[in-house]
Amino acid sequence: QVQLLETGGGLVQAGGSLRLSCAASGRKFEANLMAWYRQTPGKERELVASMNKSGMRIYSDSAKGRFTISRDYAQNAVYLEMNRLNPEDTGVYYCYANYIHATIERVTPYDYWGLGTQVTVSS
């Protein structure tokens, strides 16, 4: 089992910055992919940014140019640096990790979620 613990959420004024952190524990090998999702009331959880094992990053349109995702592979952690925040960025941010267990016979993916951290941006 893998536990994901997010920290760094909070209340910030529009134009400000926050840095979210997510630490994974429970597995010794690094995650195939780690990501940040955001959910607001009445909406589905949506991808904000992801980063795979090779370092490839994907951002949502709203995150491009303002947010930066990074990983510490040794610590099995993922970070999200958020700049120029606006009220539309408000929501609960969830950390996600995907692990792959491969044998000769099969490849099995495992998906894990954190409990989320609230980010509120005031206008």
What are its keywords?
single chain, 123 residues, seven-stranded mixed sheet, 58% strand
Strands, helices and their partners?
Elements: E1 3-7, E2 10-13, E3 18-25, E4 33-39, E5 46-52, E6 57-59, E7 67-72, E8 77-82, E9 91-102, E10 107-113, E11 117-122
Parallel strand pairs: 2-11
Antiparallel strand pairs: 1-3, 3-8, 4-5, 4-9, 5-6, 7-8, 9-10, 9-11
Low-confidence stretches: none
- Rounded Rg: 15 Å
**Strand segment tally:** 11
Please state the structural category: mainly beta
**Helical run tally:** 0
Question: SSE order in H/E notation?
Answer: EEEEEEEEEEE
Largest sheet: 7 strands, mixed
> Whole-number average pLDDT?
94
Multimer state: single chain
Into which percentage range does the β-strand content fall?
Answer: over 45%
Shape: elongated
What share of residues is helical? under 10%
Distance between the termini: 40 Å
Describe this structure in words.
By secondary structure, this protein is mainly beta. It has no helices and eleven strands.
Short description:
With 123 residues, the protein is an all-beta fold. It has strands spanning 3-7, 10-13, 18-25, 33-39, 46-52, 57-59, 67-72, 77-82, 91-102, 107-113, 117-122.
